[in-house]
Amino acid sequence: MSDEIIPHAQHADLWHSLRHLTRARIGLARTGTALKTHDVLDFQAAHAQARDAVHTPLDVAALQATVAPEECLVVHSQAPDRPTYLRRPDLGRRLDEGCAAQLTKGDWDVVFVAADGLSSFATQQNAVPLYKAMKDRLTGWRIAPLVIATQGRVALGDDIAVALGAKMVVMMIGERPGLSVADSLGVYLTYNPYTGCPDSARNCLSNIHPNGLSISGAATKLTWFLNEARTLKLTGVGLKDAAPEEGVLSDSSTPLLQKDHDI
Amino acid sequence: MGYGYTIGGEHYVFADLKTLLAKASPLRSGDQLAGLAASSDAQRIAARHALASLPLETFLNTALVPYEDDDVTRLIIDTHDKAAFAPLSSMTVGDFRNWLLSDAATTEALARVAPGITPEMAAAVSKIMRNQDLMSVARKITVITRFRNTIGLPGHLSTRLQPNHPTDDLKGIAASTLDGLLYGSGDAVIGINPATDSVANGFALLDMLDHARQHYNIPTQTCVLTHVTNTIEIMNKGGAVDLVFQSIAGTQKANEGFGVTLSVLQEAYDAALSLKRGTTGQNVMYFETGQGAALSAGAHHGIDQQTVETRAYAVARAYNPLLVNTVVGFIGPEYLYDGKQIVRAGLEDHFCAKLMGVPMGCDACYTNHAEADQDDMDNLMVLLAAAGITFLIGVPGADDIMLNYQSLSFHDLLALRNLMNLKPAPEFAAWLEQMGLYDTATERMLDVPAAQSQLRLMVG
Known about the structure:
heterodimer; A: alpha/beta; Rossmann fold; six-stranded mixed beta sheet; two-stranded antiparallel ribbon; B: alpha/beta; Annexin V, domain 1; TIM Barrel; 2 domains; five-stranded parallel beta sheet; 21 helices; globular
């Protein structure tokens, strides 16, 4: 550690060289003890995008149009609106009874559900491309019509699968937005789902967005999971243990304090 | 046995003690989710009136979770200090509030009674206290802990430097650590939430933090907030463990949801003590708690979330922690819906823990689906500082890029110290001065460009 004074021009360079190590908001200047104006507004812009991702309704008609001419099924949970949805996750997990009555039981290997979750942006942008990529890969599978679900949590897929008579459900759902990523999609796979199915019986792929896991990368992983699940007749911890790589299952059975996601 | 009170000609009845506590609790979404909240404002105040006339001794005779079913209840009852409780033994909950706010309740008197106060007594009195009451009483309480510095002195505010990284990249973490140190953060602990919760990863992160601490001779402690069983294994392998971390909750079943038992905590506590790494003291434990944890694990036993939260402080108290913090806004809007609920809960958690003699800090924070923003955090941090909070958490620019939520920034903490005339831990302030970062005359951090600081090579 020498104490020579480094010319001013190099000051900015230390943070410039460190910023490629992390997306953290490091080296922000101060005025007095406060952040500079640009940094304050930059933060507020990111927060605004995250909040808009939570509160903007899913554009169901636009999603239907991207799947056309294929027909979609449209359902909603028992949570009537966003404020109730945010306060009552239990209602977001259950299918509205009127919607359930409109679903016809079939004989499907798998049903894909596109649900708004906590980021409609994620679902709007990523769910249909992933669904189409999966249809291309799952030759010979009996795939139910795409279900579009609003005010949905992960477990809503269980009620939908039961109503449609599907052996597996793939829930594609908007993840809780952060300041840096507001459009991240999570995918939860459940074999033999039923109402009240524990989260430990699911497998999860997360972080699907343009700067994270790509649609094709997610589709490849999900195809592996679907084929293995069909062979092993299970999902969850048992399937995670057989997975070729780490980190594809979220351990969501622990209390929420353990700083993880819940959607 | 029931409780009742009449307001405006209507008589409200409460079937049992936990119903009375739940109905008296300030409104929050978690109690609504659990179906425990008061159904009207008048019912809530009737419950507070009934609660105010309840003898404190009731809580020693009425377990909210049966003694034989729950080790937290057994811990509370078996370790209750009757001699310390004696001065309070004839008081009602309402008398207790009056006494706490009176000049008779001095710092020394509050310290003497702390071992006699059970979590449920603390929770009960908090429910009939306004926010200013929670601050006024907490401010009179001093809880000092030591490991490599002195935390909790009046007129001081410590901070946890939280340099998280989504892939636990060592240099990325070092860059955030440098950022925090240049803002005078990190005297409570430099503590990482690891993205990967494994022994090997925890070992490597601790090794990196310990090297940096030793190289620059920083009078603080480091921690990787991995599961307690991982930390035990890291200690067994000779890893650089200063503090043992664990998330805890207020019932045996909720703790089982975290994968911990009291005996595992005891084992970890004994192991960390045996390392004798502390220089100013041997407080070796660090716990996080938070309202909603028990309900989210389906382990709240029909108790309202604020009361069951206070039971976690009995668990913490048993292991003489250096640090405890509530993660108040983290657990989500289904437990604390908006800024008002988060602020109230933060003040409650701080007050109840301090009343029980626990060194309480706070992660003043919120998620993006809560009705809260940085203005709410500004309010909460000032109120907590007025209440004499032990420490607060800071992350670069208030944005935790690993856990995807917002806490306080290093700037915020610096602003708070200036606004409220609070100093870092004395050993840490002296070190900052040696590093040329702190002016002891003005008690202010200097604005030293990173490239000119003595820490500039920290990241390598």
